[in-house]
Amino acid sequence: MKPEQIATVDPFDFIMIPTDQNQQLQFKFGNPLLEESASTISKKIGDFEGKYYSFITSLFSSQYRLYFDVDNQYILRKLTLLHAPIIYKGDWTLNDESQKFSQTKNIHSLDLYLPLMGLITLVLLRCLNAAISNAIQYTSIYMINTFWKCLLVSAIEVVITRILFCLFGNFKVTIIDLISTSNYKYCNLSTLYIFNLITFHIFSAVATIYILFSQAIFVYKSSQICIEKHDQNNQEHENSFEPTLAFIISMLQITCSCVLLYVL
Amino acid sequence: MQPLKNPFGIMDPNEKPKQYQNNPFDIQNDELNETIKLGDNVASQEEKQLLFEPSKLQSNETVEEISLLEDLDITSPLLIKSRIMSVLFFQKCDSEYLEDPDLSGPILIVVSLGLLPLLTGKVHFNYIYGIGLWGWLLLYFLMNFMIQQQEKQIEFYKILSYLGYGLAPIVLLSFLRIFLQDSSFVYALAIVCAIWSTASVSKTFDTILGLQHRRFLIAYPLFLFYCTFVIITIFS
Question: Which positions, given as ranges, span the membrane (chain A) (predicted)?
């Protein structure tokens, strides 16, 4: 629709909005229907904001925060446990259910801080080594590809582990516990990588065998935390598949570590 | 002999020019046959003097003019500069920055980090922004989960601001990388810049969150975050 032109000398007057159109615009913006829809939208945005904040607050105060409730001492002891599990003899199971979420009190409890840091450290170490040796041209793409390969292998391992637990009749294990238990291997692999870089791969074979053996023992003993315990009254129905399940999971862990060493 | 007629009229050297006889700002009222002179409606003599002798204006009576940027509550370049200097030289941060950080400085730093490699023919905007975004999200969740025991929470934009200002040493490294080639000196400089960024930002987080026995647990993910940018800057 062409704007109405006011009869003036200025040839550029058609750009100016005529007075009657001004009145039309004022009527449009002062339209009560438009104001009502604007207030409805702002109310919905306010409701969404409130729900978002309540969701964030509930997320950060949920049980997932306990997987990050770590301190310096716990990290050092856990790293020692990961690299030398033979030192810690005896039963690794928790005496009390509350100890499952008490990282600072019990070293055998599960966390997500170490697996996450181990994964990122391994990816960066791999990229750094490849970049220094000029083995790759595009470091950024290599970094992203390495990260996704590790995530894919971890996801497959967690799915297989979950299926194994279901097959053995244990349905109470949570995915977060499985993710935590199965991804501690990244700390071991990072240590192996650093050792190989320092020693110029002289003791690579020995170090690899030791790391895989440590992982197997750690997963074998840690998976007992996830395996459901039967009642002490029903000792005749004691689960005889418990050591078998733990053994299979530890073998699966070694397999996945070997896949990662081959793929990366 | 008649004197030559000046086209502007007969000029009397003693006569002042007409245009200076009356003040041009005087208002002539022909109906009432009067002239309202400038300063007639001014009550005090002091203000009248100021009108006619502006040189007597004292310096402390100048009207305060707020710049448009300050009026719009946009952080001034001086403030951004002071915050970048506090990161680079480990100076004490002003409490205003800790409580209400800004995003204009980090945006400037991130854009510089993307533009500087262009001088060497490298385009890394997508990787810098993508990895920065994911790293920011991971650090947001990690820190909020770790500090939840103390019943504290840190917002999205605050973490983005602190991380953004921490990239200042990386920008410096990116600038020096234009002139330096691959060598052990460059690698050492890269490590120093990563540690530099980590130390300054972890100090900020330690001040805000008051973490006890966890400072290194916060510093390590920050170190990994800045190492990512260092690797992209040095090796890509």
Answer: 112-132, 152-171, 192-213, 244-263
Mutate to test the interface with A, among B142, B145, B147 (most CBs of A within 10 A): B145
DSSP sequence for B153-173: ---HHHHHHHHHHHTHHHHHH
Q: Which of A92, A110, A123, A127 is nearest to A224 (CA)?
A: A92
- The proportion of chain A whose per-residue pLDDT surpasses 70, expressed as a percent, equals 74
CB contact under 8 A, A139 and B144: no
From chain B, the residues in CB contact with A121 under 8 A are 224
Residues in chain A closer than 8 A to B144 (CB atoms):
60
CB pairs < 8 Å spanning A and B: 66
Place of tokens 């690579």: A204
User: pLDDT digit string (tens) for B109-151?
Assistant: 999 998 988 888 888 888 888 889 999 999 999 988 888 666 6
A79 touches chain B (CB under 8 A): no
Could you tell me if A50 and A120 lie in one domain? no
Which residue has tokens 């002239």?
B35
Q: Which residues of A touch B221 (CB under 8 A)?
A: 117, 120
pTM for this model (two decimals): 0.73
Q: How many CA atoms lie within 13 A of A85 on its CB side?
A: 20
b/e B172-197 (16+ beta carbons within 10 angstroms → b): bbbeebeeeeeeeeeeebbeebbebb
Rounded distance between C-alpha atoms, residue A214 and residue A89, angstroms: 13
The span from the CA of B160 to the CA of B139, in Å, is 10
Write out pLDDT tens, residues A187-208: 999 999 999 988 988 899 999 9
Expressed as residue numbers, the domain containing A22 is 13-59
Model ipTM value: 0.77
Q: How many domains does chain A have?
A: 2
* A242 Cβ under 8 Å from any chain B Cβ: no
Please write the tens of the pLDDT for every residue from B84-93: 777 777 766 6
Q: Are residues A55 and A115 in the same domain?
A: no
Same domain, A49 and A148: no
| A88 in a structural domain | no
Phi, psi of A134 (to 5 degrees): 55, 35
